[in-house]
Write the C-alpha cells for this entry.
Amino acid sequence: MDMSAAGSIDAGQHPGNRQNGRDVEPTRRIGALFPDPLDEDGAADEVVVTTRRAIGRVALVATETATRFQRDAVEHDPMSWMFAPRQLFGGAAAVDACLDRQDCMRGILLHGLGIGLDADRSAMDELLAGDGDERKGRFLFGHQPSSRSSRGRRRTTPRARMYTATIVDTRDNRMMQVFHASIARDVDEVRTRLAGRFGPDAADLADIRQGVHVASPPVLALVPEPVLDLIRNMEQDCSSPTARHFAVDIEMGIQA
C-alpha cells in the first residue's frame, strides 16, 4: 500500500499512558483516524462490533472504488479514499459509513456514475430514490436539451434502456465470469462497450438482455442484492442525463 499517499502518522496513545498496569505502545495510523492495517493488533485498538453482511458492504464499496480508479485512470489511492472523510457520508469515512446499507449504496452509485471523489449527500439520495423525476439529472449535471432536426422536429433515436450482460468464458485453465449493466440505445452499443472493457473475444460470448434477469446463474453468483437494487432504481430513470454515465462491472476469475 502507498503509505505516503495514505498519510501515515503516529497518532495513538501518548507516551506514559498505561492500560491494565502496563505501558501501551503508540499506534501508527493512516490519516488521523485509522490504524495501519498491516500492523499487528494492539491493546489500544478500538473494538468494532458488526455483522458479516456489513463487512461485505465495506468490501463491495472498496472493490468498486479500486475498479473505477483503475478503469478511469483516477490519480488517487483507493485505500486513501476509503479512509478519508466524505461529504457523501455526512463527514464519515467510507470504511465506517459503508457498514450501513444506505451509505453502501451511495458509495456504489458515486463510482458507478464516475462523478468525482465526493458528492452532495442529498443529491445522491434523490438519485437512489428512483422516482423517475428528470430533475435528479439536472441537479447534478445540468439540463441537456434534446436535439432537433433542421425543420424543428425531434430526431427519432432509439430510446435508452437498461441492458445487462453476462459472460462465461473458460480457456487456458481459467474460468472468467462477468456481469455488466449499463444504459444503452441497443445491443450493439452494449457489445461495443464490452469489447472495450473485456476484449472482443469476450464480448462475442456475451449474453445481452434488456432489463435485469435475477434468476440467471451468473447474476445469482456475482451480484449482491444492494447492487441489484441500485440497477433497478436506475432502470426507472433511463432518460435522465446521469443515466448515460451509469455502468456496473463485476468480474470473477478462477485459475485452475
